[in-house]
């Protein structure tokens, strides 16, 4: 955990909110695989760049007022970096109080077309890093605090290419925290490889962990023990754990007197190895509900009943329709 994150976490009465960050994956582009977007935004045809920018500003304003100080973007999130950069420019005194994380290795290729069949393209090459690094700094108006390789799998060149690793070490030496995000059924393996690297440039990992998909937990615990900052993404499984999304979760939430989103985020907050839990909220109302979560320990048997095999989880996620 960075000193600034630790300072925020130490504020009396702010422990939980200070550990919740806001990810702009679902706000920076017209369509995404999160459930409930039509309820939040209306039909895809109504989601112009200007409309989505305004919505993003509303949610960022709410995040600031709620006490959220960690923001996560990426070039593949449509115009998320541009939206955040424009919002920061409107509020120049806030940057000193924020931690901003961005990524490289994916580019957005849908040209704001909701009907596009391909939305993003992955490339973990030195050339892609050199192209996207200055673009990110320009869009944000400053250097991000964290800079992560986007969606690393065990076969990624980011874990093996000597020239690429040397460049990442150079970035880390310049003061940016370098890390990786993981996706897919082999998240744990990717993290374990990253942890085993000699002279590793990495000190941050952002990984999917939620009530349905816990396969990387032991590797995340090992990363935290090594002193890495651990960020949990998709704690609500792209809307599957929102109220009405999964009957078993709704039942459990009702039994303990909370909402399904608070249960899902609270379960992540209860993990001692997890430093930051990302909310993917797309409205101020959703974000307010998310920040009402408190650490919630769930019985091991209940957790085991909810968790599904990683390969099944990721197959179901891949099959979801972007809307």
Your description of this structure?
An 8-stranded parallel beta barrel has the order 1-2-3-6-7-8-9-10, surrounded by 5 helices. The protein has a two-stranded antiparallel ribbon with strand order 4-5. The protein starts with a helix and ends in a 5-residue tail after the last helix. It is α/β, with parallel strands linked by helices. It contains 14 helices and 10 strands. The model is unreliable at 1-13 (pLDDT under 50).
Q: List SSEs in N-to-C order.
A: HHEHHEHEEEHEHEHEHEHHEHHH
Helix content percent band:
40-55%
Whole-angstrom Rg:
18 Å
Mean pLDDT: 93
Give the overall shape.
globular
Stretches where pLDDT falls below 50 for ≥5 residues? 1-13
Query: Which structural category do the helix and sheet elements fall into?
Result: alpha/beta
Query: How much strand content do the residues show?
Result: 5-15%
